[in-house]
Structures are given as C-alpha cells and as structure tokens.
Amino acid sequence: MEPDGDQALWRELVEAMEFEEAAPGWLRPEPGALVAGLRILGPLGEGGMGVVFEAEQQNPRRRVALKIIRPGSSSRRLLQRFELEAKVLARLQHPGIAQVFESGTFESAVGPQPYLVLELVEGTPFLEHAAALDVGRRLRLLIAVAEAVQHAHEKGVVHRDLKPANILVDERGQPKVLDFGVARLTDDDDERTLMTRAGQVVGTLAYMAPEQLGGDPAEVDVRSDVYALGVIAYETLCGVRPHDLGGKSLSEVSRLLAEADPAWLGRVAPPCRGDVSAVVHKALAADKARRYPSAAAFAADLGRVIAKQPVEARRPTAWYQLQRLASRHRAAVAGAVAVVLVLAAGVVATSWQAFRARRAEQAALLQKQQAEEEARGARAARDFLQEILIQASPAEPGGAVLTLDRVVEIAFERLDSALFESPAVEGAVRHTLGRILIGFGRFSEGRDHLLRTVELLQRSTGSSRDQLPWALVHLAEAHLKLGEADEAERCIERALGLSESLPGEGRLLVATAANSLALARFRAGLLDEAEAGFRRAIRAYELAGGEAGAVNAAICRANLAGMLVRSGSVDEGERLFGEVLPELRRRFEGSVVLASALANRARVFEAREEWERARRLLREAHDIQVAARGEASGPAALCAVRLAWVELRAGDSSARARAEAQLAVAARALGDGHPEVQQARLLLDEAR
Amino acid sequence: MGSHILAGVTLITATSDSLLAGLSDTSDQTAWQAYVERYRPLLWRYGRRFGLGAAEAEDFCQDTLLAFAEGYRAGRYDRARGRLRSWLFGIARNVALKHLQRTPLEGAERSRWLERAAGEDPFAALWEKEWRLAVLRACLGEIEREVEPQTFRAFCLFAREGRAAAEVAAELDMTENAVFCARQRIVRRVRELLPSVEAVF
To answer: Which residue, of A41, A153, A163, A264, has the fewest CB within 10 Å?
Structure first.
C-alpha cells in the first residue's frame, strides 16, 4: 500500500493532467497528424500570430510551411476578413517573398482555425547572413529586401511587422520575406489590435514606426514598412539598432521614437559615413512625410550609394557638390577643401558664440588665427557655407541634426580621407573641432581631438608649430572641465614654456588658464598646489605684459596673499598684501576688487587679534561695497557682519544686535543656504 | 523541441525572478516567450474554470499577460511586497472581472460567478489551486525528461486516461507490477522535486 500522502498527491497529479487535453493554448498537432489535408512533419516555430509547422502536401507533392493563425475572440468578422486578406496574399508572387499557396479554415477542438500554406523557406537568418558580407554586399541584400517589400506594396499589402527575424536568405543569396500580411490577418477590432500586438511583439517594437505605436491604424501605410527597412538597414550595417529601447515601457518607447533622433549611423559605424548614413536616416525619419515615399525609392537611393552617384537623401547643396567634386578630383581640391572646412567649423562656433557672449573674445581670436589662411576665395566659400548652415532647417531630412553632428561628421569624413596632405592642416581642423565640441559641452571628445592636435603639431614643421601653445591651452581647458587637473597642469607648463612665441593675447590666454587651474586646486582644498598654481599664473600674467597682464598679475597676487593667510601663513600673506595693495588701490579705486582684497587682509589682523586694524580695513571694504552694490546687497551685508563681529570681539557688546540684523539682510539677499551666509552664522554662534 | 506528452510544459531552468529581469529589457524576446510559455497555460485554465469560452480564455490570457508586462515595465511590481503569484493574481482577477462583465451572460455558471465576484474568495481559491496544479505539471515536465519514456508513458495512461493497470501493462508490454512501480516512482519523484520547483515558479 502507498502512504496516504502519496495518495493525495496522486489525486492532485491526476487532476493536473486531466485538464491538459483541453488546454492547448495553441493547436499542437503531433507529427504524422493530418491537418487541412497536410501531413505534419514537425514544428518550425511559434510566434504571437500562430504556430508554424513543417508539413507535406500531397498534390503537388512538396514540403510546405503550415501556419495556423491564432483565432481572435469575435471570430465571425475575423474569419471573413481572413478570407479576404488571404486571397490578396496569394497574389503576391515575388522571388523575395515566401509564397502563399493556399488558405482556409478547419474545425478544431477550440473552434474554427484559419491557416495558411506557405512556401517552405530554408535559409540563414538575415542578420547572420549579412554579418559575413562587406558593406557593398550588405547594401545589395537590403535592396533586394526593399524590392520585395515594394512588390507587396504594389499589390496593396503592407507588412507591418518587418524585422530581421522575418527574413531568411536562401542558399542562392536571395532574401525571402516571411509573414506578409499576417499582422493584418489577425486584426480584430482596431482598438484591441494595438494592445494585442504590443503584447505579442514585445521583442519587435524596435522595428515599428512611431505611427504604429500611436494608436491610429489609419496612420499606418507603406511608409511604416519603409521605417522598418531603415531600422533593418541600420542594424545590418552597424550591428546595433538605432534606438536603445531596453527597459522602457511602451509609452516611453513611443515618446522616444517620436522625439529622439537616432545616433548618426556614420558615427556608430565609421565605414558608413556619408551617403549611406544619409539614406538610412531618411528612411528612419520619425515623421513619415520625411521618409522615402516608397520602398522602391529607398532601394533606388541605396543603389545610388553603390554607384557613387549623388543620393536623393542629400540636398544638392553647394557643399555637397563640392564634396562630390572633391572625391573625384581629390588631389586638386585637397587644400581648398581643407581650408573651407576650418572655416565652416569657425562659422558654427561663431554662431553659437552669438548666444554666449563670454565666448565672443575667443571668436575674435579664432578669426585672427585664421586670418593668415583666409584668402579672398576662401572668404567667398565661407559665405556660402554660412548660407548652408543657416538654411539647415528641420524640414530637411537629417537637417535637425546638422547643427553639430552633421558638421562634425562632414569633418570626420574629411579627416578620414586622404585630403589632408600634411599633419599641420589636419591639426588645424582637429583643433577647431575640439574647441567646438568643448563649447557644446562634449568635453571628452573635444579633449581627444585636442590631444591628437598636439601630437600632429609637434610633428609638423614651419609656422604651424606656432599653434602648439594655443592647442595646449585649449587642451588644458578640456582637462580642467573633466577634472583632470594634473594633465591640465602639464599642458599649461608646456604652453608657458612656448608662450614667448605667442602674441600678447596668446600669452594672456595661457595665464588665464593657469589662473583657472590654481582656482580649481584651491576649491579642491589642495592648498600647496594652489599656491604653486597662483605663482605660475602670476608669472604668466607678467610674461603676457601690457595693461591686462599687469592688472591680472596684481589680482592674482592678492588672491595668493588671501590664500596664504587662510592656510595659516599669516606673516607671508601680510608681506604680500603689503606689496600688492598700493597697486590695487591705484588701479581699483572704489572697486569691489579692492574691497575683497581689503576684507581678505583684515583676516591677517583678526588672526593676530589686532581688532582695531581689522576694523579699519573692514569699514573701508564695507563702504566700497555699499557704494558699489548698495547697503542691502549680500556682499555689503556680509562685510557688515564681519565688521560687527570684529567690534564684538573688541568688546563692544552692542555689536551683536548689529551683526544679527546684518546677517538677516545677507540671508534675504543671498538665500539662507548660501555658504558664506552659513559661515557668517557659524562665526556669530562661536562668538556667543 | 521534441514531442513531449506534456506539450507546452516548459523546463524550469529559469527562476521567475530571472524571467522578470529579462522582461524589463524590451528587446529580450526569449525571456518574454519563456514567461508566456510558463504562465499562459495556467491563465488559460484559470479563465476556463470560471466559465470563459476557449477563445475568450485566449483573450483573457493575452490581456492579463499584456497588463502584466506593462505594469512590470512601469515598475509597479515590488518584489518586497509579495511573490509573483499574488501580483499576477491581482491582475488576473481584474481582467477576469472585466471579461465577465463585458461578455453577454450565458448560462447560470457565469451569472453565479458575477454574483460572487464581490467577494474575493472564489477567485483566490481557484487561483491557488491552479497555481498548485501548474507547479505539479512543471514537475512532471521535468520528470518526463528524466525517466525512461516507457515509465512515463505508463504513468500517463494510468493517470490521464484512467486505465486499469492490467490494460496499461498489456499495451506497453510490461508487468502489472512494473506499472505500479512506475506510478509510485513518479509520485515520489514529484514529492522530491516539488519544493525546488515551487521556489522558482
């Protein structure tokens, strides 16, 4: 006898198995079974739309694929639609489309089952096949797919679920598109369709056009298939899909597809720079009106890429024609194009700087730098480039990304080609590019270009070596932005060593970079490094000379003095203040620069508890602040708090009320959380 | 995939957690399929149990899985708040109610379900039961791969088709004793496997 527990479990198992026959989910005929007059050989696959079996047809005798379509709920209407659509599908006859031989319905345990008998395609998965080909052959394969899709479109059938998984390549290299029209066969009512499809094809959202996720089936047309072809082309050419949809919800995917431009193909896959990218991105436009109107148009443009003819995806702009010209007469125009490119980049930088006033001086420097190269012809070239950049409207395919990505990409194309016959020219272009990238906040890319620039310029001879210190300063700037202070320091040291060859503005720039470095060190709390940095900056400003050099050197000295006092070297700080203050008084009469320096010097006497001297300095600083900024301003109030605190320390107990009142003023002006306000509060609390 | 007697039973190689992790990646179709394969039969049976027709039960599965996927990706599944079983139940119950309300009433069975829908008990009890049966089926799926086909076949004829031991023995050319042994062996093995399968389901 079996134990009781086993008996109970046995009964449960019997129940678990009883239901099995009635719960097919999908109809799953066993091999050997006869379904719709076909003998089942075995399962081929299963998807949201149904199950596919390999089967044998008797007449004509051949192996076929039997696809049993998933039945929807209100099946009557669906079955009528199915019959209609299946007839249309049977009319599709193209070497690139798996042929529909037959369609119908048969009765099964779970009701009427629609089915299709299809050409059995044996082949390699599309992406796997494509991976072994060079770019040219991949393009030809994509053209073949697009042509098959075009055939279906002409017969009124939109695929709506094109994806690499639906394409096999047979042994002759002919791609075969599967599952045409199947998406439509299973449509029930329209609202459900999207839901169902979204659930079923979770893995294939990546190939769906934005309008397919929008909820309006009327929006879906042949151009949705063009979009899918674009995604397939993108993936085929570079191995990744244009959008990373990982971990995103349906609504996020929807928004992403509609709003974000995919990463430019030419940047992801350098061999695809230029026309290929332009063509693929035109197919991928989020707005279907901007895509190719047909799969045939897409195929034709891919054909032009292979034939090296101008593509439709690119407007026949003067710049584009110039590029074409250049590739045909490489040697002759090489120099000119290189110069033009530098100027083009300059225009971009300049137009951005229009929005960034603080960069205006750099633009001026840039133009000065370019002046020697700027022949009369080049100026004309710049005018038309400016025209192109201004005209780059979002209505133009790829236009929306032209602002930076396109210009940079065009530049990359040139960098890659043999156009730069000398490292000096390449260095100049990279230099400009690097600065633009930094201007756009893409610091690490910019840094890499500038690193290369420095290398190139070191190798070059003649006058272009003059650019080296500039490049080093800009590189230092990038390093600083990236928090790479040590690298920045090395660049600045080298630039300083070379800066004798620079004009005054150049030396000033080196000095400014040195000062920025010192401030960065100071903020990071690295006082020794900051001290060395300020001394270096002072040297650099003195070397720069002129009025600006002298003024800045004085400010730098005052900063260094203040820092020394704060770090405890009170006597040395005071000595330096003693040296620099007369000059500051002369140059900055009534200026807040002087006020800051005076307030900093007051710390010397606070440290020595010489309250009266500290009070005099703070009184003077406060007067200047009030005159310059007003009594209720933050700096004036903070200065007043310090003043009252000193008076308090000196024994004037009535000063506490003044200090509290001024602290309230400062907090109002600067906000309670302002670090200096908090510091001042701490100071008062300690004095209790 | 072979032609197993328990068609549609997935190998329990993945934990429900790892399946869920895969689902958060929209492009991971394998995880989605494995997930659907594991839970669709359970949901289908559940739908049938409270009176949905075959096609309706299909729709019920689809809607539940879809609501699940959407909810999961929107981050509404909090692992800390309970097991997958109870979360999926909450969704299935809501979808089931919608289906029952939407479809025209046919027969006493359905109206009884609607009347009782206000109380959770019938739904919950049914859910617990179906979950248990699904876990048992998963165990059997594992065992089918472990044992001699003959042994499993005997078990199926015995359990699923309710045939007499002598009849099964004759058909499979075994002794009657061997048939009983097969049955006992599989029941014991289910008992052994049960805790680990339950833990990952």
So the answer is: A41
